[in-house]
Design a protein that fits this description.
Elements (H helix, E strand, L loop, with lengths): L3 H8 L3 H8 L9 H14 L8 H5 L3 E6 L11 H14 L3 E7 L6 H10 L4 E5 L4 H10 L3 E4 L7 E4 L2 H14 L5 E5 L11 H12 L9 E3 L4 H14 L7 E4 L2 H13 L9 E3 L16 E3 L2 H17 L7 E3 L3 E3 L11
Parallel strand pairs: 1-2, 1-3, 3-4, 4-5, 5-11, 6-7, 6-8, 8-9
Antiparallel strand pairs: 10-12
Helix pairs in contact: 1-2, 1-3, 5-12, 8-9, 10-11
Length: 341
């Protein structure tokens, strides 16, 4: 009768690797090619693979995830990278994501019922704020929630100082000599710019420089790059005689959309417009010119959120923890500007 040792010798791996693969363990990575060789060899040798009793146990080793918004995209340069970090850390510890739903999904009563009544998850990670009524419903039915930038003192949360990060971005423009700075962003769930942290950072930087916000310099793109592009085009047409000299966009994708509009209208960057974004998404370094931005450790946020969830499952903290991660200004050519004569 063939043994694990026979399979290991033929494939050229350790017995423990064969054992993990045939047991469907995911706590330590084995590349897909090696896994396939092990399964093929086991079948060729006639190795009897027992039904994995452990599967019923691992089925419970799942965590759910709710994302405030994915802006109707399968890939989003901010949220998707956080999810990558979450999945990697969970996988390294024998867990997996049972589901990832958006706030829009939760408006479907059947999906909400499945989450709270049918899914055998050990906890849920919520990325940014969701509708208060839905969140309250989830808290009643999900035994453990960890938040990423969620305002709830009753749960462990991971975040970074968005107000300060935005303030530093705008201060950089002010230090370059700009006094008329356009803001492009969105209001989120509240519908109120004054409750949006990146806008508050923009406003604070202006106030510290002795300036006030010009309402005409605030564009609500609702976080959509298409809106940012159209609004920027319209703004350039409507205010051609008195234009600002700089743009601060609350995300890189909105900044890139604004840059396209600026270029299409024949303006130069940074000579006519300095531009600063937010997030440091990978494409930001490849724009023309390369985009100044604030680096947010999105992948690390996901890892820390997953680690916090696992800690809360295995050995809960006595009180909810608040973890604040650092950010880093990355100022590139798009904001290298001198005062126009």
């Amino acid at each position: 009768m063939p043994t694990l040792k026979d399979i290991a010798e033929r494939v050229g791996v350790s017995i423990s690797t064969v054992s993990r693969v045939l047991a469907n363990e995911s706590n330590r990575a084995v590349n897909s090619e090696t896994k396939q060789k092990i399964w093929d060899t086991a079948r060729d040798l006639g190795y009897h693979i027992k039904p994995v009793a452990h599967e019923s146990q691992t089925a419970a080793k799942e965590v759910g995830c709710i994302v405030s918004t994915m802006q109707n995209r399968h890939y989003h340069p901010y949220f998707s990278v956080i999810l990558d970090g979450i999945e990697k850390e969970l996988s390294h510890n024998g867990y997996k994501l049972a589901f990832t739903y958006t706030q829009e999904n939760l408006k479907n009563p059947e999906i909400l019922r499945q989450i709270t009544e049918e899914n055998n998850i050990e906890g849920m990670i919520v990325i940014e704020g969701i509708d208060a009524k839905i969140y309250s419903h989830l808290k009643k039915h999900i035994k453990l929630i960890v938040g990423i930038d969620v305002s709830d003192p009753g749960i462990s949360t991971i975040s970074y100082d968005r107000v300060e990060a935005a303030r530093i971005a705008v201060k950089h423009l002010l230090d370059q000599g700009h006094r008329d700075i356009l803001f492009i962003g969105g209001t989120g769930l509240s519908g109120d710019f004054d409750r949006e942290k990146r806008y508050r950072g923009y406003k604070t930087a202006l106030e510290q420089a002795g300036l006030s916000v010009n309402p005409k310099h605030v564009l609500n793109a609702e976080w959509e790059p298409d809106n940012a592009y159209r609004l920027m085009l319209k703004y350039l047409d409507d205010h051609s005689g008195r234009l600002p000299t700089a743009v601060f966009a609350a995300s890189d994708i909105m900044a890139m959309a604004a840059m396209r509009a600026i270029a299409e209208k024949g303006y130069r960057m940074p000579q006519d417009f300095a531009v600063v974004g937010f997030d440091d998404n990978e494409p930001s370094r490849y724009t023309v010119p390369p985009l100044s931005t604030i680096h947010i450790p999105t992948f690390e946020i996901g890892i820390v959120a997953a680690k916090t969830m696992l800690q809360c499952i295995q050995s809960p903290f006595p009180l909810p923890v608040k973890i604040l991660l650092p950010f880093e200004p990355i100022f590139r050519q798009s904001s290298e500007w001198q005062v126009r004569q």
